[in-house]
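Appendix B. Chain record.
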Amino acid sequence: MDRITLEPDKRGGKPCIRGLRITVYDILEYLASGMTEAEILADFPDLEREDIWAALTFAAERERRLVSIPPR
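Structure tokens predicted for this chain:
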């Protein structure tokens, strides 16, 4: 998870990839729109395959924390 950075002065403090101006949300939107990993990497040469996986892992962990339903 060291690939995800949070900097208050960059992209409004949103989680970014390795201090770049590419947010986790940007990557998720590209994937959701149908872009392949190869297309994203071709369009953004600063990104690495591991960055995409880190974004997915970050989103999954965040979702897991947000959607924790207490037992009845």
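Further analysis of this model is presented in Appendix C.
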